[in-house]
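Many introductory courses stop at the sequence. We go one step further.
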Amino acid sequence: MKLNLGENIRRLRRAKDWTQDDLADRLGTTSQSVSRWEVGSTYPDMELLPILSALFSVTVDELLGVPEEEKNRRAHICFDRLRRLCLTRGSDPEEICETIREIRRDYLGLFEMWRFWGEGNDGRYRDPAILPEVRKTAEAFLDTSRKPDLRCLCIEMMAETEDEEHIDAFLERYASQSDLSADNLRYKRYFRRNEWDCYGPYRAKRMFVCINELLDRKRILRDDDGILRVESLYNAAIFQKKLLDALSIGEAEAPVDAWTLVRIQAAFDMGAALSSLGRQDEALEALENGVGLLERVMKITDKISIPSGSRWLNQFDWYAEESWDNFNNNPDGERQRMVFFYERSSGWCNCIYPQQFTDALTGGHWSDLTPFFDPIRDNPRFLACVKRVEALCVSKPAGEDET
């Protein structure tokens, strides 16, 4: 890899309107040394690189002239390393901190930063030995990034991760008193100006966010004491079905739409609740319906357009396609076949992994449902459902080509 260090030093020095003597004075070296760097006959000592990058307000990679493709490759390796360390129980906090410092120094401006905020490392970030480095990274990122989606992801994660000592100062600095996002301001603008053609997409987006929260399984299932009870399972599943039925009034019924994951989860929740309530035939029917819908989903391979499931949300372009990933974002874990549902303009996405439903039936990641199935566990229809879901679980070793 050819480095353009000398050319970059000259270009950045001239952009500052500095002479070689000016730069030498700032570095505590001689103008002859600067001249030799710029013509490429010698290179500055390694310890000067961070100082030079700070003087010119660029990263070390930018100073060296590392090609964008190579920089992205290095970033991917670095974020993989951070994820491994955060997944590994007992890993050295200082090693995590060093990796975070590397990210803050070299990769703040990359889109790959979404992984820092959104990949599930926040549980480890709360470690008092690690949180100060996360805090510094958030501050540096928010002070420099102009990417609204990534800024929002960072602020939301830090609002959950920050400790009690610092949370008030963080919110005072970065939260607004009301929602002043571009989408919300346009939503209000077009409504107040009666510009209905412009207003429609923003109304749809506002509705989608509200509906998505109302249907979120994690938000509605638990009782106030955090315990999952059969009544909660039953009532939540009824609520989800009634809301989805109301949304779909006037729409042609489709086997797969934007709310398919909610429908499958609600069917499994209903099956678990009815099983625990002693209504075995109804429980098995609900479960079989959920498994049937999951089987239809897993037939998807190529990218397809799917309906929104509601006439109020048809302004969006919804898609589904086959994909492969690790359920826990583990770079070294096996990749599982799943179907990826998404809508680009809203940033919405869902991943349907058959493994999560196998776990619900037999124990594992989503095993909070498992005890509720005990009354029907030996029923042949239940065992048949388990086999049907297990048959949908396909995996490949980490790194194996997807094709």
